[in-house]
Amino acid sequence: MGIGIVTSIGIPRARDTDRLFLILCLVVPLSALILFFVYPLATVVVHSVTEPDGRIGFGNYATVISQPNFWRATANSMVMSLATTAVSLILGLIIAFATQRCRIAGRSLVLAAVALPLLAPSLVQGLGLIFLLGRNGLVTKALGVEFNIYGFWGLLIANSLYALPQAVLIIAAALRSADARVYEAAEVLGTSKLRQFFDITLPNIKFGLLSAGFIIFTVTITDFGNAATIGGDYAILATEIYGQVVGQMNFNLGAVVGIMLLLPTMLAFYLERVATQRQFGSGSDSAVPLVPGWSPARDIPMTVVAWIIALLPLITIGIVVYASFVWLWPYRFDLTVRHYAVKIAGGYEPLWTTVQISLLAAFAGAVMLFALGFALQRLPRSLVKPVYFLSLLPAAVPGLVLGLAYILTFNAASGPWQLLYGTAALLAICNMMHYWTQGFLTTMTGLRQVPAALEETAACLGAGLPRVMREVTGPLMAQTLISVFFFLFMRSMVTLSAVIFLVTASVSVASVSIMRLDEAGFTAQAAAFATCTMAVVIVAAGVMQLSLYLLGRRRR
Amino acid sequence: MQLEISNLRKAYGATVALDGVSFTATAPQFVCMLGPSGCGKTTLLRMIAGLVAPDSGRLLLNSEDLTRVPARRRGFGIVFQSYSLFPNMTVAENIGYGLRIRGDEAQRVRIRVLELLDVIRLSELADRYPWQLSGGQQQRVALARAIAAEPRLLLLDEPLSALDAKVRTDLRTEIRNLQQQLGLLTIMVTHDQEEALTLADRVVCMRQGSIAQAGSPEDLYRRPANRFVADFMGLSNMIPLETVQKFAAQLLEGHVPSDGATACVRPEDIVLVSGGAGATVKSVQFLGNISRVQVAWPGGELVAEQPGMAALAAGANVGLAFKPGGCAWVSAS
Ligand SMILES: Nc1ncnc2c1ncn2[C@@H]1O[C@H](COP(=O)(O)OP(=O)(O)OP(=O)(O)O)[C@@H](O)[C@H]1O
Ligand SMILES: [Mg+2]
Asked: Which helix or strand (DSSP H or E) is residue B295 part of?
C-alpha cells in the first residue's frame, strides 16, 4: 500500500479500503490453511523422522518397514481398495446407465437409495451387515449357515456400498455430458445397441470412469469406520495407524504409517484431477442432451438389476434403523424404544456437540471459501496458482492422518495453541480442513458463473469491494454457498476418521459414540445412536433442498 | 468536459492489446470506437472506466489525472453488452443503485428513479425483475441506471449487439437523443460501421491495438487515412496507381500521388451510363433502397451503386464515369 499520501486528486483511501478488504479475504482463509493444514502436516513429517532418542533420522521408517504387520496391512489395503474400486465401478456404471440412459421404474427412488450411505457415518454399513449376516444376523438365522462376515468379504461389501454414491455421481455426470447427435448418427448407420454401448458410450466416459475409480480408491483406502466395525482381523493401513497411536501410544510410528498412506492417496488424487480435466474440462454445454426412449428389452432387465443394487444400501441401512427398535435382537422382535436410552458416558451429549461442531465447520468453511474465491478472482495469477494448489491438497490427505497431525500439533504444543486442544472449535476446524477441497471446487465453479460485467457495473456505480461482495456477488452465489454449507455440515456430522484422535472425555462426537457402543457390545444402542445421527443429517438435507427450492423460485 | 488520453499501452503476456493510443474528446461529443474483433476496443473502454490498469500512458479528465483512480471513484456510467442488470433487484432498484451507493436519501432516489423511468418510458415496469423484461427493455434500464447519478462520462460497450435489428435502430436513436439532451460526453464501442457512421460525431477506428484513424464520420468515409480504414469503412473500389494512370487518368485530378498509392473510390461515386461503352455489367443485386452493380472494366472489376432499382441487366454494355472529388488516395499499408 506504498503511498498513503494523496496522489493528485484521486482519493487513495478508497482504494486502500478495497485493497485491505481483498487482503483480508485472502489472508484469513490462507492463514487457516497454513496453520491448520500445512503446519500440522509438516509436524507429522517431523515426527516421522524423529527417532526415539530425539534425533532426526529414518529409524522409524526402518522399524516400520521391517515389521511384517506393516507389509500385511499395506497389501491388505491395496487389495481391499482395488477390489472395492472394481465392485463399486461396475455397480456405479450400472446404476448410472440405468438412471441416465434407460427409462427405469422408480428412477429417483433408486438414486435416493444409492445415495443413502452419504447420510450416515461409514460404520453404519458395517453395523447393518452385522445385523444381516453376522452371528445373530437375520440372513444367518434364516438360512442356518454361519458366515464369517468380519474380515475381507464384510469389509468389501461395506466399502463398496459406502463408495457407490460418489461413483454414481461422477459416472452419471459423464454420461449426461454426452451428445445425443452421436447416437442418432450411429442409429442411422444401423449400429446395434450393444455396439453403441461399447463403441460410443464407454469410450466417451472413460475419463469419468477413471476419475470415479480414483475417488473410490481414495475413499476406501482412507476409510476407518467400516474397517473398525467389520474389518475383524483384516488389518489395513488405517487400522494400523489407529493401533500404533491409540493401542501402543507410538505416535512417531503412527506418523510413519500415515505418511506411507499419504503416498497412494496423493497419487490417486492427482490422477483423479487429470482424469476430471479430460472428462469435464472442455465443459461445452452445447451438446444435445440424450433423452432415452422406452425400450422394454433393455429397460425391464435394467429396472430389476438397478433395484437389486439399490436395495443393498437400503436394506443395510434400514436394518440398522429397524434393529434400533427391536427388543432383543434376534430373539424378541417386539418394538421398543428402550435402546434409545443410551448407556454410554455423556448420553446424547456428543450428538449435540456434533451438531454444534458441524454448524461451526459449515459456517466458517462457507464464509472462508467464499472470501477466498472472491479474492482469488481479483488477484494476479502468480498468486492464485499456489493458493489454488494448496486448496486442492486437503482432499489427498486421509482423515486419520489429519487427525494424527492435529494431536501431534495441538496436544503437544506449548503456548496458545494448546488451548485449542480438546475443544469443539478444534474439531470444527479439523472437519473444515478435511472437506476444504470439495467445498473450494464447488465455490470456484459457482463464482465462475457470476458474470463479471455485473461486478464491474457495480464498481463503476461507485460500489467498493465489500459492497460488491454483499450486494452483487453474494446474492448470485447464494445457492452455491448453501450447497457448500450443507455439504460441510453433513460431512462433519458423520465423519469419524479425522476426529477419532481428537475427541476427549468431555468433547466427543456422534460417530465415536456409535463406535464405542458397538465395541462395548451394545449393538442395539449403537444402532439407536446411528439412527438419531442419520435423522439429523436427513433433516439437514431436507432443509437444504427446501432453501435451494425457495431461492430458485424467487429467481425464476 | 474534456477527456484526454495519451499513449496508453496494455499487454497481456505476449499479446499487446493496446499500443500507444492517444486521442481527445470533448463534451457533448458522441465518440464511436470501431474496429475488427480483437483490436482492443473493449480493453480501451474498460481502461477509460478504470476496470483495467494501463501499463503506461495517462488519462486526464479536465486535466485531472485519473490514470490511477479506481473505477468506483471516477463517476462514469457504463453499459455492457449483456448480463448488465442485477438479477436480484427490481427495475427501480437497479436504476437507483448508484444513487443509493452515493448515499442519497431515499426520497430523492425515488424521485430520480421515477424521472428516469419516464425518460426510458418504462414507468409501468418499475417493480419487475430483469428476467421479466425483453432484451431491449433491459438495455434501456441499464442505460437509465448508468445516467442516474449524472455521470461525467458515459461508456457503452456494444450495448446494442445482442438485440435484433429493429430494436437496435430504435434504441440507437434513443441513445443519441438522450446524449444530446444531457450534453454528455459518450464513448461507445461497436463493430458495426453503419452504427458508428450514423451515431457518432467522432469515429475512432482501431487496428491491432492502435488507432488507425480518428475523425468525423465524413473524414473516415471520404478521406480514409490508409487502406485499412478505407476497407473497413464500408465497400470501396481499390484501384492501384498504375491502373488509374492507364485507364482512369481523370481520377488524378491534377494530383500527383506517391508511388504505390491506391485510389479508393466509393461505389456511389461511380456513375454507369446505360447504352454507353467501356464496361460490361456482370451482375446486379437489388438491396431495397439501392442496387449494387458489379461491372467488368479494362482495369479490373468494380462495384457501383445506384439509388433504387437499376435498369440494367447482366451482360449489358455501359459507359463508366467517376464523380469528381470522389476519390481518396491511400498509401499501400
Ligand atoms: N483479460 C485478458 N487476458 C488476456 N488477453 C486479453 C484479455 N483481455 C483482452 N485480451 C486480448 O487483448 C486483445 C484485445 O481484446 P479486446 O477485448 O479489447 O478486443 P475487442 O476489440 O473488444 O474485440 P471484440 O470486437 O471481439 O469485442 C485480444 O487479443 C484479446 O485476446
Ligand atoms: Mg469487445
From this structure: strand B290-297
CB of B138 closer than 6 angstroms to any ligand 1 atom: no
Q: Computed over its alpha carbons, how large is the radius of gyration of chain A?
A: 25
Mean model confidence pLDDT for chain A: 87
Architecture of domain A69-323: Orthogonal Bundle (1.10)
B51 CB neighbours in chain A (<8 A) are 456, 459-460
Of A363-367, A396-400, A545-549, where does the model show the most confidence? A363-367
CA distance A163 to A156: 11
Segments in A435-473 forming alpha helices (H): 436-448, 452-460, 465-467
CA dihedral A154, A155, A161, A167 (to 10 degrees): -140
Whether the CB of B145 is below 8 Å from some CB of chain A: the reply is yes
What is the model's pLDDT at position A6? 35
Chain A interface, Cβ < 8 Å to B:
7-11, 14-15, 18, 451, 453-454, 456-464, 467, 471-472, 475-476, 555-556
CATH topology of domain A1-48+344-556: MetI-like fold (1.10.3720)
Q: A390: which 3 cell numbers?
A: 494448496
What confidence tier does A281 reach under pLDDT thresholds 50, 70, 90? low
Helix ranges, A1-134 (H): 12-33, 39-48, 59-65, 68-101, 107-115, 123-133
How many interchain CB pairs under 8 A, A with B?
Answer: 89
Distance B45 CA to ligand 1 centre (A): 11
For chain A, residues classed under CATH 1.10.3720.10 are: 1-48+344-556, 69-323
Q: What is the pLDDT of residues A163-217, one digit of tens each?
A: 999 999 889 888 887 777 777 778 778 778 788 888 888 888 888 899 899 989 9
Give the tens place of pLDDT for each residue, A137-170: 888 888 888 778 889 999 999 999 999 999 998 8
The answer to whether B30 faces chain A, any CB pair under 8 Å, is no
Q: Set out the domains of chain B in order of their start, with CATH numbers.
A: 2-229 (3.40.50.300), 235-330 (2.40.50.140)
Among A453, A454, A462, the residue with its CB nearest the CB of B72 is A462
Radius of gyration of chain B (CA): 24
The residue assigned the cell 491534377 is B254
**Cα–Cα distance list, A227 to A224, A231, A455, A520, B28 (Å):** 5, 4, 49, 16, 77
Task: Collect all residues of chain B within an 8 Å Cβ-Cβ radius of residue A464.
Answer: 72
Which residues have C-beta within 8 Å of that of residue A487, sequence separation ≥ 6?
A: A362, A435, A438, A439, A442
Of A366-370, A497-501, A541-545, B109-113, which range is least confident?
A: A497-501
> Residue B189 CA: which ligand 1 atom is closest?
22
Which residues make beta-bridge pairs with B15?
B12
Q: What percentage of residues in chain B have a pLDDT greater than 90?
A: 59
Q: Which residues of B133-147 are buried (b: 16+ CB within 10 A; e: fewer)?
A: beebbbbbbbbbbbb
ipTM for the predicted complex comes to: 0.86
Cα–Cα dist B40/B36, whole Å: 9
Res. A4 pLDDT band, cuts 50 70 90: very low
